[in-house]
Design goal:
Number of strands: 12
Bound molecules: pyridoxal-5'-phosphate
Distance between the termini: 56 Å
Structural class: alpha/beta
Radius of gyration: 21 Å
Strand content: 15-25%
Order of helices and strands: EHEHEHEHEHEEEHHHEEHEEH
Largest sheet: 7 strands, mixed
């Protein structure tokens, strides 16, 4: 039977999902370290769900300072990425542009759709910023979407809004610019949501998986002008979320919950600063990149050895040795203070 599968998908690799459960310190998937248990109000599940529950839409509109008709609920940002590629890219004709190294799902969705992937490297010598002139050179008339991840995973830095705006302007009427802001709550800069009213070719992706600590809920928010939101809705299944997910998302985004989230973000930023300093003092570390997210990108003399010793001690980091340009790097999520201290003490031992 498998020979009936589309030929070009036969060798497609399954997404390498980070294992992040069980005994140990899990610093490999950029999750929140605080346990959150779903609060679900008694729900009627003999009926299909209401797609846009009023209380949830009110809360999200307040959080993102965006009109409700400019918000689309998705099953994580992963689904937002996939929907956009499917809506804009004609298979075996169109292309997306990505700025590497970056989050892998843009490429994965494009591969599935049969869309070409144009890779433009970020400037490693300039804090992984965009090289706007090289975008002009690589841009083709088939390029339908440019994915800009800011702060970028796995490099951690923010792409300045002014740079993104230049790109949005340059490709106006030709392509959509999707700004993936999965980690923006940990950054000092402003969100591109501020500019959605101004540009019909701008889409911003936000998620409840990171700062809100709800990776297990699978809940993302796609922000764009209302006509585009309406168009994307047409290609979605009619009931993407279960009643239970919508109920849990409503309970997790109330005003009262915001205070805890804000203090958690401050905690992570403080721990990030401490970790960046501690790591920069080690001889085994050759570079700690400036981060505006809940993780650090760190270069080591021998990253494989460091990751292996940490794993033996049940501390799990994300290896990036297979990523071009990041062969010497490991990505480490900022955890609770005790977890971070466990990590630094192992690294200090290796250092000796
Ligand atoms: C940059 C970026 N975008 C999107 C996602 C996926 O987010 P979600 O859990 O909302 O699908 C991740 C997950 O790690 C990410 O790093």
């Amino acid at each position: 039977m498998l020979k009936l599968v589309r030929t070009e998908l036969q060798d497609l690799k399954v997404y390498d999902v980070a294992k992040c459960r069980g005994e140990g310190v899990w610093l490999n998937a950029n999750e929140s370290p605080w346990e959150v248990n779903a609060e679900i109000v008694a729900e009627q599940i003999n009926r299909y769900p209401i797609g846009t529950p009023e209380a949830l839409m009110d809360q999200l509109s307040e959080i993102y300072k965006i009109e409700q008709n400019q918000l689309l609920l998705t099953r994580g940002s992963d689904e937002g990425i996939d929907l956009l590629v499917r809506l804009f890219c004609t298979p075996y004709q169109d292309a997306i542009m990505i700025f590497t190294p970056t989050f892998v799902m843009y490429k994965q969705s494009a591969n599935l759709q049969g869309a070409k992937v144009i890779e433009v490297p970020l400037q490693a010598s300039n804090d992984f910023k965009l090289n706007i002139d090289s975008i002009d050179k690589a841009f083709t008339k088939e390029t339908k979407i440019l994915f800009i991840c800011s702060p970028n995973n796995p490099t951690g830095g923010l792409i300045p809004c002014q740079d993104i705006l230049k790109v949005v302007e340059r490709v106006k009427d030709k392509a959509i610019v999707v700004v993936d802001e999965a980690y923006i709550e940990f950054a000092e800069g402003e969100s591109m949501t501020l500019y959605v009213n101004q540009f019909s070719n701008l889409v911003v992706l936000r998620t409840l998986s990171k700062a809100f600590g709800l990776a297990g809920l699978r809940f993302g928010i796609l922000i764009a002008q209302a006509p585009l939101i309406e168009m994307i809705r047409r290609i979605m299944p009619p009931y993407p979320f279960s009643v239970l997910t919508l109920s849990a998302a409503t309970a997790a985004t109330t005003n009262e919950k915001q205070c805890k989230i804000i203090s958690n973000i401050a905690y992570i930023k403080k721990q990030r600063e401490i970790m960046a300093y501690e790591l920069s003092q080690l001889r085994i570390v050759t570079k700690v990149w400036q981060s505006e997210s809940n993780f650090l990108l760190v270069e080591f003399k021998d990253p494989k050895k460091v990751a292996a010793i940490c794993a033996l001690n049940k501390i799990y980091l994300r290896e990036l040795t297979g990523v071009p340009g990041l062969e010497q790097s490991l990505r480490m999520t900022i955890g609770l203070e005790a977890e971070n201290q466990q990590l630094t003490s192992i690294l200090k031992e290796i250092n000796e």
